[in-house]
Amino acid sequence: MGETTLATAQQARRDPLTIDGVELGSRLIMGTGGAPSLDGLGAALVASGTELTTVAMRRYSPAESGSLFELLAERNIRVLPNTAGCFTARDAVLTAELAREALETDWVKLEVIADEHTLLPDALELVDATEQLVGRGFKVFAYTNDDPVLALRLENLGATAVMPLGAPIGTGLGILNPHNIELIVSRASVPVVLDAGIGTASDAALAMELGCDAVLLATAVTRAQDPVLMGEAFRHAVLAGRLARQAGRIPRREHALASSAMEGRAEFL
Amino acid sequence: MNIRLNGAQHAVADGATVSALVGGITGRALGTDGRATDGRKLGVAVARNAEVVPRSQWHATALAEGDDVELVTAVQGG
User: Fold this and answer.
1) Distance between CA atoms of B24 and B71, rounded to whole angstroms?
2) Could you list the residue range(s) of the whole structural domain that residue B25 is in?
3) Whole-structure pTM value
4) Does the CB of B8 have a partner CB in chain A at under 8 Å?
């Protein structure tokens, strides 16, 4: 039993996520937003074990440029540029083109947001941008609503991964509609990455238990009281959730079920 | 002549290329392929009048009076 348990655990650690032919040893994708300092961010990223991390594209400022890109490169963390802050397909496509030029990757986390209040994806612009970017040779990681119909549409348009939200960006409300996430997973043939809304480690474990292939989060780590400790917590949570999913949970029951046999009890007269 | 760089007025020499602009702003020496000659990655991209200028074209692309240039890089986010 001991050997089997150990072997299973080791097997899980050799359970890479393969996207676009690239093997990622960690199923935790990190964002970099919200960290007060680059030093602290670097330590939290290392503690999380992530091998893929998002960045935003913004105007170059001589005072502060270059260091984030170098920080990730030094730690062998692959970069996933996003289109955060884009409200239209046009802006998202142009931002993706700039990211491809600047960072020399055709991977892009496509975010097309409807408004600043909800930060929810605009489904129509998202579909339009996905179609355009796939046509231009991008590998599109589509940040989407927790809508099983839309998720399948994005996959059929050629998205490399679909990334349904657990809850609105930055809320830490966890996974508001686990049923929809499960439904998205059950119908998808591309990787499903739970993105946004994660508050704490158990939310990430739940995402993996629901069958997601990976989890993407930023705020939950970068704005935690101790980001390094929280990064480590998420590393374990994603691994635990993945193992639990593979192990197969017991069915839920209405009534109690004894785990000790009734036969052979001592009888006290 | 004057262009707009990242939303602000910016003076450049008449006939300056995108390469000269990027090299000047980043303080890095650039080859004709648009890469830094120190071998380290530059990590920036340029849009001119809302169209991306590939780094391979920076050297051959002359700026014109009133051009609107965006010079972007990766920052924390997402």
Assistant:
1) 12
2) 2-73
3) 0.89
4) no
